[in-house]
Amino acid sequence: MAKDGAAAGDTQKTSMMNDPAVRSIVFQVVLLGLVVFVGWYLFHNTTQNLASRNIASGFGFLEQPAGFDIIQSLIPFSQSATYGDAFVVALLNTLLISAIGIVIATVVGFVVGIARLSDNWIVARLATVYVETLRNIPLLLQIFFWYFAVLRALPGPRDSYTIMDVFFLNQRGFYGPAPVMEDGFWTIPVALILGIAIAVAVSIWAKKRLMATGKQFHSFWVGLAVIIGLPVLAALVTGVPFTWEYPALKGFNFQGGVVMIPEFMAVLFALSLYTASFIAEVVRSGILAVSKGQSEAAHALGIRQGLTLRLVVIPQALRVMIPPLTSQYLNLLKNSSLGAAVGYPELVAVVAGTVLNQTGQAIEVIALTMAVYLTFSLLISLFMNWYNARKALVER
Amino acid sequence: MNKLSQFTIGAMLALGSVTAAQAATLDDVKEKGFVQCGVSTGLAGFSAPDDKGNYSGLDVDVCKAVAAAVFGDATKVKFTPLTAKERFTALQSGEVDMLSRNTTWTLNRDTAQGLSFTGVTYYDGQGFMVRKDLGIKSAKELAGASVCTETGTTTELNLADYFKTHGMEYTVVALGSNSEAVAAYDSGRCDVYTTDASGLYATRIALEDPTAHMVLPEIISKEPLGPVVRQGDSQWFNVVKWSLYAMVAAEEYGVTMANVDEMKESKNPEVKRLLGAEGEFGTPMGLPNDWAYQIVKQLGNYGEAFERNVGEGSPLKIDRGINALWTEGGLQYAPPFR
Ligand SMILES: N[C@@H](CCC(=O)N[C@@H](CS)C(=O)NCC(=O)O)C(=O)O
Q1: How does pLDDT run across A306-359, given as a tens digit for each residue?
Q2: Rounded mean pLDDT, B128-151
């Protein structure tokens, strides 16, 4: 900076502020100072006000025992767990429903989106009706529909619907058998991971060979066989190292096995089917954005319709689709907070609801909740940007 | 409203200046001309709106008593219905001047949350309600049950404690408002509904067929329910505290809505002091001298309010029990008026 100023001073006497480099630095420093000051002011004032009202502050409460129970938790959680544990439980519940929701929404969305372009009149019409109905009904209403109209209408535990006395469906949830691990169980997940690794390696090799020699290889079927076959083989070799624990009606409720609670099902169905209707539109517009000449050319080369779609159209459509798809995924994550309305124990219900109320620390709790949504939204964005960059046109 | 008040409190705490935060609530109240009182969204006998939106109930009468003390007019109150989850942020952010909403006095709330409980309107305890056809006689038989309750309450904490102490498993369905919790119980999502015993009575008579449900004999906790104000404003704290005491004292001395005018001439100096016929007891609180007279004149004493709202004169027919005066073997007791 000093050097710049000296150089300018040599030639003619002008104000330092006229030097664009200096000026931009000065402005940035002033702006930064202002932001820091406002931030400090808000922080200072908040802590002062909290103290003057005798409201506890800080994040120390996260280590205090929570004292309440949560209906669904992926990690052990008991009455003696801390508020910090409750936060983790709620976070995992949010991530669980979002992750499964994203997968279902994507699959349904792709199927419906492609169906809307189908030559079959009925299929195309059905897809249109799906999109137009679900897209135009508010999500909260759809959650209520599933929760109150569908799942609450199911019979009580004593009159459950059942499939072969193994699966049970009633007002309290959907019950199924759970595997109980025995010695040697570890071989199965290890075999599964090995299977996936082999499948990935095979598909990379097959692609290279295809590029080099043009020879096809059914890497999909081979991969699938390995992924399913290896764990099955491992189980047989180790003498089936697990047993099934079946749910059974004991007293008030079914005990044992695994349960999917109705709050989870209602939110999952509503969330994924609603988002799927938007994804369907993204898929449709992505496909329409690929010039017709592309598929005509493929057909002229004698490539079948299905293959054309998979190898020619979709890869190009993906480029158009990824940015809007990303925002659908972000919406789904954020919309999962509506689960609070039916008591699904996700982040907003447990942390911004119960924890906030039991501790009274509104500022910290709301800040924590917002930070989580922000972090995960940014992570999804980052991942999709990376994926987008990979799929973008590469000049060969 | 819930999210909104959470953000208002954030914005207010961040932007408001320290001195403004300590503003005297009594002056504010006098200036706006009414008391803004937080009550529950609907609990028969304690606070429930009729079809015209007028609130009534024992908790509501405490709000009205404060208005009578401040303005000499029990109607100068506006009510804000609040769920359990919303109530404290609404008070802390200044959305309401006081809470009178079946809220349990606990150590943590009274200290760490910036709240001050002014007394006890109703001594309560938590109980369980089940459908009669389950054939259950005691809470000890509830192992494995699904239990519906409202989140953000002492109720969900006591519930966890109780089942843990007795080594029983259970499933909690914690909902955001009482009406949702009751609806969930009613539709069969849960075997058990739990809340304060007073709430159980109020809920049971509102169910389609009250006789199909029963309250189990166990009372598993202490729930002293009382009015709450913000910490750090001792003047307002005193106004709310003594408004309730005035009702209790009136009952102790046999002052009723009907005889309050004659009682001004009573030979008992304590009664004269209570009714403002002798001494200057309102002024130090910033109230007119006839503050307690106005309360009794317009709302009656504690016993009258109790009978009218939740006792024999109401559909709830709750026994006075431990809410009787100390002289009758109960816990209600007012410090001396001198
Ligand atoms: N006394 C307990 C519970 C108070 C409470 O809010 N109970 C619920 C029933 S579980 C209620 O009455 N809700 C009425 C409403 O939401 O308006 C506490 O202070 O935490």
Answers
A1: 888 888 888 889 888 988 999 999 999 999 999 999 999 999 999 999 999 899
A2: 94
Instruction: Compute the distance from residue B102 Cα to the ligand 1 centre, in Å.
Output: 6
pLDDT tens-place string over residues A222-246: 888 989 998 899 888 888 888 888 9
Do A94 and A262 meet the contact criterion of CB atoms below 8 Å apart?
Answer: no
Report the pLDDT averaged over residues A193-207. 91
Q: Is the pLDDT of residue A221 over 60?
A: yes
Mean pLDDT over B303-313 rounds to 95
> In angstroms, rounded to a whole number, what is the distance separating the alpha carbons of residues A341 and A358?
19
- Asked whether the beta carbons of residue A79 and residue B88 sit closer than 8 angstroms, the reply is no
Question: Could you check whether B10-123+225-323 and B126-221 share the same CATH topology?
Answer: yes
Q: Which amino acid is at A106?
A: T
CB-count burial class (<10 Å; 0-12, 13-18, 19+) for A141: exposed
Instruction: Give Cα separations from A302 to A51, B173, B247 (angstroms).
Output: 77, 59, 94
Q: Which CATH code of 3.40.50.300, 3.40.190.10, 3.40.140.10, 3.20.20.70 fits the domain covering B10-123+225-323?
A: 3.40.190.10
Angle between helices B2-15 and A362-391 (to 10 degrees): 100
Q: Could you tell me the CATH superfamily of domain A83-177+246-391? A: MetI-like (1.10.3720.10)
Tokens of A43: 């922080």
Q: Does the beta-carbon distance from A48 to B7 stay under 8 Å? A: no
Q: For an interface test with B, which of A68, A82, A158, A255 has the most B Cβ atoms less than 10 Å from its Cβ?
A: A68
Kindly give the interhelix angle for A187-213 and A219-237, rounded to the nearest 10 degrees. Answer: 160
Residue B172 at interface with chain A, using a CB cutoff of 8 Å: yes
pLDDT at A8 over 60: no
How many C-alpha atoms does B268 have within 13 Å on its Cβ side?
15
Task: Say what the pLDDT of residue B8 is.
Answer: 61
Predicted confidence (pLDDT) per residue in B92-111, tens digit: 989 999 999 999 999 999 99
- CA gap B240, A269 in Å, rounded: 49
Q: A234 vs B159, which has greater pLDDT?
A: B159
Alpha-carbon gap, residue B101 to B74, rounded angstroms: 18
Cβ-proximal residues to A364 (8 Å cutoff; 6+ apart), any chain: A57, A58, A59, A61
Q: Where are the domains of chain B?
A: 10-123+225-323, 126-221
Q: How far apart (Å, rounded) are the C-alpha atoms in residues B46 and B49?
A: 10
What span, in angstroms and rounded, lies between the C-alpha atoms of B220 and B243? 30
Which positions in chain A touch B155 (Cβ < 8 Å)? none
What confidence tens digit (pLDDT) does each residue in B280-305 have? 999 999 999 999 999 999 999 999 99
Position A181 confidence tier, pLDDT thresholds 50, 70, 90: confident
- Fold assignment, B126-221: D-Maltodextrin-Binding Protein; domain 2 (3.40.190)
Q: CA A341 to CA A348: how far, in whole Å?
A: 10
**Alpha-carbon torsion (B331, B332, B335, B338), positive or negative:** negative
Q: With bands split at pLDDT 50, 70 and 90, how would you rate the model's confidence at A12?
A: low
Rounded to an integer, what distance in angstroms lies between the CA atom of residue A141 and that of residue A118? 30
Residue range B2-59, pLDDT digits in tens: 455 565 666 666 665 544 445 689 999 999 999 999 999 989 999 999 888 899 999 9
Burial class (CB in 10 A: 0-12, 13-18, 19+), B112: middle
Three-state DSSP at A247 gives: coil
**Helices marked H in chain B:** 2-15, 18-21, 25-32, 58-71, 84-92, 107-111, 154-165, 178-186, 197-206, 234-252, 260-263, 269-274, 291-299, 302-309
Provide ipTM, 2 decimals.
0.84
Measured between beta carbons, which residues in chain A are less than 8 angstroms from residue B10?
Answer: 46, 362-363, 366
| B171 close contact with A: CB closer than 8 A | yes
